[in-house]
Design brief:
The chain has 7 helices and 10 strands. 34% of the residues lie in helices and 19% in strands. The chain is of the alpha+beta class. It folds into 2 domains: 220 residues, Alpha-Beta Plaits (2-Layer Sandwich), CATH 3.30.70.20; 51 residues.
Length: 274
């Protein structure tokens, strides 16, 4: 399990969207203008080329008050990542920083990862090769792993002017998050730390002002046993079985070839003696 996490304190977010712009710029992602949908939210949700979105939710409190609830929505980088478990090509893995990343040299665009994601984050982008043939690749936030490898913070974290976004050592971040939660509960009694244990926690952890469902998040996502069994047991054993079968066939062919060679040599000796 990674020693680093990204922390999102939604109670500090003012909806400025600087994180969205920084993400687009750093990752060289194309703009995706959308028609006005009657909301101040700029995009309906995450796409293959929009890796983080500020969501806006109108929320009426139990005391009759009203709040705008903002959330920096992006990949949560799950410890038991549904996308990774669903991938048949081993194209998805977790780095030492806790970031779940995609190897595009291995990705075949099958879309199983899209179906496996607990949070509807990962999506497929369509490209064309030099001959004009279309192909697809899975894409999502990679926590700016290339920046982390060079001692830099994720682009979204660097752009955040309210300290809503923090990246650091897990132990330190969680300690500060729990201290912050105690203060936030004075205004938001339902405030909570969102780090779902049904998927062994995530490497993007939220402090939410209300229940996860208010933000469109599953209350208690669970790793699918069928995916875990298939990925961690059935697939490796299947590869071993194929490898053993191949080795057996090749060994049999080698033995058969050796016997033929030996028999030919014996026949030659018998013919010479005769």
């Amino acid at each position: 399990m990674a020693d680093y996490v990204k922390f999102v304190d939604v109670t500090k977010c003012d909806g400025c969207r600087a994180c969205m712009v920084a993400c687009k710029n750093w990752n060289d992602l194309p703009a995706e203008p959308e028609e006005f949908q009657g909301s101040i939210q700029s995009h309906a949700g995450l796409t293959a080329n929009t890796w983080n979105v500020i969501t806006y939710d109108e929320h009426e409190r139990s005391d009759g008050g009203f709040d705008w609830l903002f959330r920096h929505a992006a990949c949560l980088h799950c410890n038991i990542a549904g996308c990774e478990k669903a991938c048949p090509e081993n194209a998805i893995s977790t780095t030492k920083f806790g970031s779940v990343v995609i190897d595009h040299d291995k990705c075949v665009g099958c879309g199983y990862c899209v179906q496996g994601c607990y949070f509807d984050v990962i999506q497929l982008a369509t490209y064309k090769d030099k001959k004009g043939k279309e192909y697809r690749l899975a894409q999502k936030c990679d926590l700016c792993t290339s920046r982390l490898e060079n001692g830099l913070q994720p682009a979204c974290v660097t752009a955040c002017h309210t300290d809503c976004l923090v990246f650091g050592r897990k132990e330190d971040v969680l300690r500060d998050a729990n201290a912050r939660l105690a203060k936030v509960k004075e205004r938001y009694p339902n405030a909570n730390i969102y780090n779902p244990q049904g998927i062994d926690g995530t490497n993007t952890i939220y402090l939410l002002a209300e229940k996860p469902s208010v933000y469109g998040l599953p209350e208690d996502p669970q790793a699918k046993l069928s995916q875990v069994i298939w990925k961690d047991w059935a697939q490796p054993l299947g590869k071993l079985a194929v490898g053993a079968t191949t080795f057996g066939v090749l060994s049999a062919l080698a033995v058969q070839g050796a016997l033929k060679f030996k028999n030919r040599g014996k026949e030659g000796e018998d013919h010479h003696e005769g």
